[in-house]
Design goal:
Order of helices and strands: HHEHEH
Protein name: HNH endonuclease
Keywords: Endonuclease, Hydrolase, Nuclease
GO molecular function, one term: zinc ion binding
Pfam families: HNH
Number of domains: 1
Strand content: 5-15%
Organism: Lactococcus lactis subsp. lactis (Streptococcus lactis)
Low-confidence stretches: none
Length: 94
């Protein structure tokens, strides 16, 4: 299945209490500092799945909730990573 963030979003995953608890833990663990570029002054951060989350793995604890698969990124780094991931996935289907 191709990556589709909207499908995961509409599944209710990001409003689930378990996700919100893990998300808050990652923010504290990473000290509100981007783990890619080191920015600690960004206005917006995202807790990102290193292995992309999709409808096939959204219920797999090792991917969805495992702190080893999560890191805090500033908005700009998260946007760049998302574009790279999408381009990589698109190439798999050509």
């Amino acid at each position: 299945m191709n990556y589709n963030a909207d499908s995961v979003r509409t599944s209710g995953f990001y409003s689930d209490k378990k996700w919100l608890k893990v998300r808050d833990y990652i923010r504290k663990r990473d000290g509100m500092t981007c783990q890619n570029c080191g920015d600690f002054t960004a206005k917006k951060y995202e807790v990102d799945h290193k292995t992309e989350l999709n409808m096939e793995n959204v219920r797999d604890w090792n991917i969805a909730y495992n702190p080893d698969n999560l890191w805090l990124l500033c908005f700009d780094c998260h946007k760049r990573k998302t574009v790279r991931d999408k381009q990589s996935n698109d190439r798999l289907f050509y």
